[in-house]
Known about the structure:
434 Repressor (Amino-terminal Domain), Rossmann fold, 13 helices, 12 strands
Amino acid sequence: MGVGTTGQGGRMSKGSRRQVTLEDVARLAGVSASTVSRSLSMPHMVRASVRESVLWAVSRLGYVPHGAARALARRRNATIGVIIPSLRFTVFADLVESLQAELGAAGYSVLLGHAGSDLRYEADQATALLSRGIDALVLVGNAHDQSLERMATNTGIPVVTTFDYRLDAPYPCVGIDNQAAGRALVDHLLDLGHTRIAALMPDERFNDRAARRLAGVRGALADRGLALHPQHLVLGDGAAEVGRAAMAELLGREPSPSAVVCFSDLVAIGAVVECRARAVSVPGAVSVAGFSGIGLAELTHPAITTVSFSAVDIGREAARLVLDRLDGDGQAPSVEVPHRLEQRASTAAPGP
Amino acid sequence: MGVGTTGQGGRMSKGSRRQVTLEDVARLAGVSASTVSRSLSMPHMVRASVRESVLWAVSRLGYVPHGAARALARRRNATIGVIIPSLRFTVFADLVESLQAELGAAGYSVLLGHAGSDLRYEADQATALLSRGIDALVLVGNAHDQSLERMATNTGIPVVTTFDYRLDAPYPCVGIDNQAAGRALVDHLLDLGHTRIAALMPDERFNDRAARRLAGVRGALADRGLALHPQHLVLGDGAAEVGRAAMAELLGREPSPSAVVCFSDLVAIGAVVECRARAVSVPGAVSVAGFSGIGLAELTHPAITTVSFSAVDIGREAARLVLDRLDGDGQAPSVEVPHRLEQRASTAAPGP
DNA sequence: GTGCCATCTGCAAACGCTTGCAGGTAGGAT
DNA sequence: ATCCTACCTGCAAGCGTTTGCAGATGGCAC
């Protein structure tokens, strides 16, 4: 490129004008590059008058520090990697937004990766982020690909996991007790008198939160001498359309359930919609419960019983943990975020 | 630091084991650093046998390239900045996810910033991303703070805007024609026979998409000799709860509207919920229309009439534009993403 | 006027990777 | 056997900042 005759030695193509460097600012301000650097990141180390003229030069030139160079010299990227299954799920969007706010306030940026529900793909994303340069990694759940774990220990960067709190977690984590939450939901239904309880959930092999919830569901049933009928377990990921389809499937099965727990509110909403479409009364003919407590679950008709918790809180606490590992003493413990059963209109005692 | 007596010269604190470098790999593979570098990024330039032993050394050492160093040397970050109002809005989450997928496939990562609805804050985020090192910037809408625009031209990085297509856009853009969309929605209501039409929308001063839609609304009304009654304009940002509140407000006003257009589907959902709570029939007593075509709008009862478009398409096209500016010939033109009026059950001819 | 101290400032060496250039090697043609 | 030509590989010079160290500067006490 650049065969032109334009002198000056300057590039012309594609807006790649040479970037303004510390050196340029230094020259204009009549000081050395080190002084400029210090004026910007350790202001107290330079005399006020000098600092002032440096600042003037900076703004005159529109100088913007070069992040990569800074990261290289400082051996710190000021960037946190966050890998989530998908932004389409409100809870993860909330997590990211919350993380971003907290970390941003502490001077860190968020580099985002999407993993779908495939641990293998998650590991790939992690590699990408790692080689892009991150100081810490935030993940969802406690089940991860071996290669990811190895990478994490190799590079020695802190990892924090979210949404699943458990004592034996491999990394510091912040989340809810999914097992207890699953149990609470089913206990509620059992207390209402249900015995034929079904579950609409993601494949537990790819989703350790779902696995824990399912364990809670089974546990609660077992405690009353009941069990989850094989016909009562329908797999499906967290979209409303999926909830509809899964509910349709379920309604055609024998024995027919009197209550359905969904591991996501959107799925529950879809399930309710399907019921209405088939003139199956909720909660008259079948009770439906959701999970996560997204705002919408409260507005539907009927309002949906759910286990609610705050993804925003999870994000905030996760950010705290990350910052503790990075700038603190690294001792901050995992935190359990509370969940609460929200009894609403979509669940009731089973009909006769 | 490190006053300890542990030999080896190795650091011990906080997992900051010295990072494995190209040099280390080179030594183990018995070649020079350049060869390792080339083996990894220009494989065809190195003999297969050599490459193989390099790769072996790489995996043995668990070498991960240092992004900052690479970015510094290459003068390219392989990172794209994306600033959106908030992830809480489905459309923006879809945008980000789509962008991330497309850009990721091309080897770029996404650095995320949230701007709320404040242009000033957006500019701050842009500064942060810029100094973190990005090769291009994706924004929402075509109205931005002057300082942001100055920064963009100064640094010369490509900017692509989304969600608002217009011929006079300052940067290449991809989005819908918001004015036409607003007009289409109101024309639909006018065709049904409505004359008292209200709008629930964000403050147009902070949201140029809303401003354009409003222009469309006013235009459509004017064409039929009508106008938006001042009492019929209620401000409120895009959450369902806000829609409820705004609808409550609106129902108390005189003259009472016979139809309400909401500039977001969630707001429309909230509005419908509020109507039900007050036993105001939709569409019997009042028609309600939404905007964006999120999946949920189809599942509510009644299903909500809306102008739908694909945020995923916008993301994909925006990614194309970015890549064109970065790796292509930079000639790819702005693209208008189509919108479509989805007539559903929430709108009907006004009652007597 | 001299000497000492406290503050500031500049020098230069990293940080880890890329890449133009030149040298080396091996294989084929003569 | 010799020379030429590809094809590989290594050297070393950056890329823009940070930061330990030492030198410079100025103020103050004597």
